[in-house]
Amino acid sequence: MKDGATIWKHNTPVDCSWYWRQLNAIKVQMRGWYNQGRYMLTQTGKYSITSSYLALIGQQPRMRTAELAWTSMALPKHRFITWLAVQGRLLTQERKLKLHIQVEDTDCCLCDKKVMETTIHLFVKCEWAQAIWKEVEKWTGIALQINGIKQTLERIRLKHWKKVKKETIAATCGAIVYHIWRARNWKKFKGKSVHIKEAATQIKKEIIERL
Ligand SMILES: [Zn+2]
């Protein structure tokens, strides 16, 4: 009969299928739940399907971040734009170039830095975007923005807040993303500048209405 260590020991063949590799990865992970034959995810040491399931789900941060991006607290149009931004699928000037769509001017139109309009510039680095994040942060009293939309949602997800607070703050971030994209479109296609205060006021109004 094999001892415990031998049962777990298995070298994954190089040419095995994706599914086989995933099963092996899960097996290796499950090994970490046991210590000297004792199941560690419950206080009693008794095996629990729920604890195991939650531990496995915990290994999928992208899924949980998606849940926050799609929170029902956010307006549908905010959810949609936020999700596209998280995926890097908004049609920024940089993305148009990648898709071989003809672009006359690749610069960000919200600032005068003469830098290419990328997702990270538009929503994170651009001074117009930064001003909006700061303005709304003053209102929420919570530092919202870090180095990317996905990272911001991920940080909210990991906070020890109640679910409703996480959803409200995530919805606020979604509203900011939406209004940055809207201000960009107004400038680019209508030649109209949206004032920071005006956008911030609209964001606050839309969030309050959802509460
Ligand atoms: Zn800019």
Arrangement of strands in the largest sheet: 1-2
* Gap from first CA to last CA: 61 Å
Count of β-strands:
2
Provide the succession of SSEs.
HHEEHHHHHHHHH
Radius of gyration: 23 Å
Mind summarizing the main beta sheet?
2 strands, antiparallel
What is the arithmetic mean of pLDDT?
A: 86
Q: Supply the number of helical segments.
A: 11
What low-confidence regions span 5 or more consecutive residues with pLDDT below 50?
Answer: 1-5
Structural class comes to mainly alpha
Describe this protein's structure:
- The chain is an all-alpha fold.
- It folds into 2 domains: 4-57, no CATH class; 61-210, no CATH class.
- It is 61% helix and 2% strand.
- It is built from 11 helices and 2 strands.
- It has helices spanning 4-8, 18-31, 49-57, 61-69, 76-87, 93-98, 119-125, 127-140, 149-158, 163-190, 196-210; strands spanning 34-35, 38-39.
- Strands 1-2 form a two-stranded antiparallel sheet.
- A hairpin with a 2-residue loop joins strand 1 (34-35) and strand 2 (38-39).
- It is globular and about 65 Å long.
- The N and C termini lie far apart (61 Å).
- Residues 1-5 have low confidence and may be disordered.
- Zinc ion is lined by residues 108, 110-111, 113, 121, 126, 128.
